[in-house]
From TrEMBL:
Designated name of the protein: non-specific serine/threonine protein kinase
InterPro entries: Kinase-like_dom_sf, NEK_Ser/Thr_kinase_NIMA, Prot_kinase_dom
Organism annotation: Rotaria magnacalcarata
Protein kinase domain residues: 1-77
Reactions listed under catalytic activity: L-threonyl-[protein] + ATP = O-phospho-L-threonyl-[protein] + ADP + H(+); L-seryl-[protein] + ATP = O-phospho-L-seryl-[protein] + ADP + H(+)
Domain of life, source organism: Eukaryota
Alphabetical keyword list: ATP-binding, Kinase, Nucleotide-binding, Serine/threonine-protein kinase, Transferase
Classification via SUPFAM superfamilies: Protein kinase-like (PK-like)
Gene3D superfamilies per the UniProt record, alphabetical: Transferase(Phosphotransferase) domain 1 (1.10.510.10)
EC nos: 2.7.11.1
Length: 115
């Protein structure tokens, strides 16, 4: 879960959460959980909360993967709903295109037979 927090932070901030050229300072930042929260301000409260929870230093206070999934549930449901709506819309458009194509072919064949 800690690693997930690091990866998510890196994905949204485009820099790792803990970075310094001095290895001792790096270890200190990691142990203290000191990272720059500024890059996260441009993202939703939910992603900030997930990253914050995953990067909790004390493992007993950090959520397990089920806890992380619970933090993501609302966003996943919204994404699923939007995806289903998009799929239904695309299916409808495809069916309309198929019907139009079949109608055009039928008219073309009728014209050829009448000639």
């Amino acid at each position: 879960v800690w690693s997930l927090g690091c990866v998510l932070y890196h994905m949204v901030a485009l820099v790792p959460p803990f970075y310094t050229s001095n290895i001792l300072l790096l270890a200190g930042k990691i142990c203290a959980g000191e990272y720059d929260h500024t890059p996260l301000q441009y993202y939703s409260e939910s992603i900030r909360q997930i990253i914050f929870e995953c990067l909790t230093v004390d493992p007993s206070n950090r959520p397990d993967i089920v806890g992380v999934a619970k933090l993501c549930t609302e966003q996943l449901m919204l994404y699923t709903d939007r995806s289903c709506a998009t799929i239904q819309s695309l299916k409808k458009r495809l069916r309309q295109s198929e019907l139009y194509y079949l109608k055009q072919q039928s008219q073309s064949q009728s014209q050829q037979q009448s000639v």
